[in-house]
Amino acid sequence: xxxxxxxxxxxxxxxxxxxxxxxxxxxxxxxxxxxxxxxxxxxxxxxxxxxxxxxxxxxxxxxxxxxxxxxxxxxxxxxxxxxxxxxxxxxxxxxxxxxxxxxxxxxxxxxxxxxxxxxxxxxxxxxxxxxxxxxxxxxxxxxxxxxxxxxxxxxxxxxxxxxxxxxxxxxxxxxxxxxxxxxxxxxxxxxxxxxxxxxxxxxxxxxxxxxxxxxxxxxxxxxxxxxxxxxxxxxxxxxxxxxxxxxxxxxxxxxxxxxxxxxxxxxxxxxxxxxxxxxxxxxxxxxxxxxxxxxxxxxxxxxxxxxxxxxxxxxxxxxxxxxxxxxxxxxxxxxxxxxxxxxxxxxxxxxxxxxxxxxxxxxxxxxxxxxxxxxxxxxxxxxxxxxxxxxxxxxxxxxxxxxxxxxxxxxxxxxxxxxxxxxxxxxxxxxxxxxxxxxxxxxxxxxxxxxxxxxxxxxxxxxxxxxxxxxxxxxxxxxxx
Length: 481
Description:
CATH topology of the largest domain: Aminopeptidase
Number of strands: 22
Helix content: 25-40%
CATH superfamily of the largest domain: Zn peptidases
Shape: globular
CATH architecture of the largest domain: 3-Layer(aba) Sandwich
CATH class of the largest domain: Alpha Beta
Number of domains: 2
Strand order of the largest sheet: 1-2-3-13-4-14-20-16-18
Low-confidence stretches: none
Mean pLDDT: 94
Largest sheet: 9 strands, mixed
């Protein structure tokens, strides 16, 4: 016989808000869908570790689904009609796509935005050198990393280089099990007493992050820098490059491992690049729900995938560029019949957006830096971040109370499990997203995404159910906003 609840217990249930594990309400059918969704995500992640590769992958998906290049669509005399599908590839590193809705775009679009870049190690413009019969690539790290985490990790090289004839060569070495891998070395414990006494931020410096790429000399008694020469010979034979070709190359060193299930219960996924590819994948899947339904969505559905977020969103492939504004301008003109800058601004000001970006998951090993009342947790659903920034909310986009309420109402109606998403204690934590760049255009925007453990490390961890819940949340937003 169950004990009757006290008045206080009943009042707590009525007035309080307790965030439970999202696993507790998942049905057997949900669990099956979560596993299938996670498997697709791991395949997506393994096939695209850089912003170029992810953009190419999404471009291919959209082309197969009948999306038309925006350059072609905008140049035609015919208008864009409800249900039409267009996309804009931005220099091979970023991408926008849209499914035209029934309502005029001037009444606002439903937008999901994520970034495709992740922290990594970039190769410098004159990288190859030899020291003590070993060859190295000189590097410059990209984004906020803990430098010591990147030593002794098997690395793969991805990117592009132009050969001596000016032809672009795609680079991907280290992902196939028969490929060699590369590594940044570290000092053995027996000799690291002085290193161990340094601050973690100083023990490994940016100039220490050089990548070991070879040690076999070219067999010629009279040649200089024989190991370096042998590496150049190998690269010339395979890619047709000479040393000067590195001046224009974009080559990124990323962890060579594949995405893997984590834990005895396989409830989590460990991989490089969850930030922010997990939210990009969930956004892509949610938006493509409207691609081939036979009827147009109510509002125009737009996905914006940007580059350079990890370095402050500067550059012509970033959220700071004019690409998105130009995309909206083209859609407005082709759906209304004429170009009108006022209509563009009207469309932007009436639009709603979720900035699909990750948040820091609470880690009990480092509990002192988190505010346990408002931080996000692995396994408790999509994290809603009213604001980001740091200290006194510097550099943040602070969503209005009205917009936060609108999002929560949609999630509650669709039974999407959500939680709070502040990043760390006030004077300790902080971070930024692309929300502020889109808010600058007049768009209503809020950050909602997946909590991540070990963010910006070579092996980040997320919960499968948080990934699934993010997808369900983005889908609910696009349907009902």
